[in-house]
Design goal:
By secondary structure, the protein is α+β, with helices and mostly antiparallel strands. It has two domains: 59 residues, Arc Repressor Mutant, subunit A (Orthogonal Bundle), CATH 1.10.10; 134 residues, Beta-Lactamase, CATH 3.30.450.40. 43% of the residues lie in helices and 20% in strands. The longest helix has 28 residues.
Length: 228
């Protein structure tokens, strides 16, 4: 009996089993580790050899991992050295809009309940920046707090709450630190990797921190859940 020609044999479907899934996950983890290693370089761009040492793989593996990252513009090579690519800027530009969308429902609930302007503040180095603001709809007057407003993290409840350590008070209050006659209460957003942030309210009259503080903490927890 004639044997079928292998070139014309019916194609076989390839199913990725547990081993294939594990290998794919390992490749993804190594690719992310490589991207992180490039980003962590503070001065001179790392070489292929530097990256191989840092993530514990061979130089050949680094070359293979760089391919997909280069094709998406996340890294670029300058000879043997590797730098972040402009694609990272595009990704970074998408972060804040998505943060606003995710946290706005929780902030709106807080603003309406308290009758004060609610905000999400994110730390950028030594500065704190308001990235989402929701004003209450029913008050006669309230603070107009602009998105993009920056101030030192050491000043104001919003900034100080960003790095509030675990085991400390759950919220922090301030008065007149950033603007005379303005009062704030803020709580840290915890449990979101890579994010230093706080949720707070600001008003033009003293805030009953013992009453409002727990609401701010609850909202910060809701925001953290929405961002995970």
């Amino acid at each position: 009996m004639a044997q079928p020609d292998p070139a014309h044999a019916a194609p076989r479907l390839q199913h990725e089993g547990p081993t294939g899934t594990k290998e794919s996950s390992l490749t993804l983890e190594r690719g992310l580790s490589l991207l992180q290693a490039v980003a962590d370089a503070e001065s001179e761009a790392p070489t292929i050899s530097d990256l191989a040492t840092r993530i514990g793989v061979s130089r050949a593996a680094v070359y293979r991992l760089l391919g997909p990252l280069q094709s998406r513009g996340l890294v670029r090579r300058e000879g043997s050295r590797v730098r972040l690519g402009l694609g990272v800027l595009w990704l970074a530009g998408r972060v804040l809009p998505q943060l606003r969308v995710a946290c706005t429902p929780a902030l709106r609930g807080l603003a309406e309940k308290v009758g004060a302007t609610a905000h999400l503040t994110v730390a950028d180095g030594s500065e704190a920046q308001a990235v989402a603001v929701v004003e209450p709809s029913w008050t006669s007057y309230h603070v107009s707090y602009r998105v993009g407003t920056r101030h030192p993290v050491q000043r104001g409840a919003a900034g100080q709450a960003v790095d509030l350590p675990a085991g400390s008070p759950r919220w922090i209050s301030s008065g007149g630190d950033l603007q005379q006659g303005a009062f704030g209460v803020a709580a840290p957003v915890r449990g979101v990797p890579g994010l230093r942030a706080s949720v707070g309210v600001v008003a033009l009259q003293p805030i009953a921190a013992d009453e409002i503080g727990p609401m701010v903490v609850e909202t910060a927890e809701s925001v953290a859940e929405a961002l995970r």
